[in-house]
Amino acid sequence: MMTTKLTLPQLPYAYDDLEPYIDAKTMEIHHTKHHQAYLDNLLKCTEVDFNLPLEEMLVKYEHIPAVRNHGGGYYNHNVFWKMMSPKGGGEPTGELKSAIEAAFGDFANFKAEFKKAAMGRFGSGWAWLLREKHSKKIRIESKPNQDHPDLAHSIPLLGLDVWEHAYYLKYQNKRPDYVDAWWNVVNWNFAAEQFKK
Ligand SMILES: [Fe+2]
Q1: If you measure from the C-alpha of residue 121 to the centroid of ligand 1, how many angstroms do you get, rounded to a whole number?
Q2: Distance in Å, CA 183 to ligand 1 centroid
Q3: Domain, as residue range, for 83
Q4: What separation in Å is there between the alpha carbon of 44 and the centre of ligand 1?
Q5: Rounded to two decimals, what is the model's pTM?
Q6: From ligand 1's centre to the CA of 96, what distance in Å?
Q7: Is residue 12 a part of any domain in this protein?
Q8: Which of 21, 50, 127, 144 has the most C-beta neighbours closer than 10 Å?
Q9: Each residue of 124-145: b (16+ CB within 10 Å) or e?
Q10: What is the pLDDT of residues 152-186, one digit of tens each?
Q11: Distance CA 107, CA 141 (A)
Q12: Total count of domains within the chain
């Protein structure tokens, strides 16, 4: 195994801080077991230069299935924790609000489209709100498994993990209820910062 600076990031809040929308046990298992396992398995990939910046490394080696799966899982969860906050919820403001209205008409329609992406992903995967790197255009996309978004050309603003491990303890088979509840913890401040990058 090569030396690496990659570590499991601490959550920016406590496991029970997203209650009642996301329960503490789910958060703890998700972070300490699932996220940790993606990192551990990524570090077993011997062909990878871990000294590269993470996003660059993921793009460079995305043809290697283990990097795509475990590296994607590591990266997706790194950003996912930041996309939620106990002080989250509500609606975006400023430039991001305008971009959402330009792309989707209004906030309610944006939420409906995002939910469609989250619900339309059969099996495990993610729904993303992305901004193009070289323009301020935004779009919604869903990805299967732990495939990360197109990081060469886009910046993730929001992402929703729709693997059952993200919601099963509290919501069982009711993915729509999890998606609806998630809006209460969405960190619009983080999304706005990403949008400005
Ligand atoms: Fe997950």
Answers
A1: 14
A2: 17
A3: 21-197
A4: 20
A5: 0.96
A6: 26
A7: no
A8: 127
A9: ebbbbbbbeeeeeebebebbeb
A10: 999 999 999 999 999 999 999 999 999 999 999 99
A11: 17
A12: 1
Q: Which CATH number covers residue 177?
A: 3.55.40.20
Q: What is the predicted pLDDT for the residue at 4?
A: 65
pLDDT in tens, 43-87: 999 999 999 999 999 999 999 999 999 999 999 999 999 999 999
Q: Residues with Cβ within 5 Å of ion ligand 1?
A: 161, 163, 166
- Residue 100 inside a domain? The answer is yes
In a domain, 2, yes or no: no
C-alpha 34 – ligand 1 centre gap (Å)? 7
CA of 102 to the centre of ligand 1 (A): 30
Backbone angles phi, psi at 143, to 5 degrees: -130, 145
Q: Are 159 and 126 in contact (CB under 8 A)?
A: yes
Map tokens 């600076």 to a residue.
5
User: 37 C-alpha vs ligand 1 centroid, how far in Å?
Assistant: 11
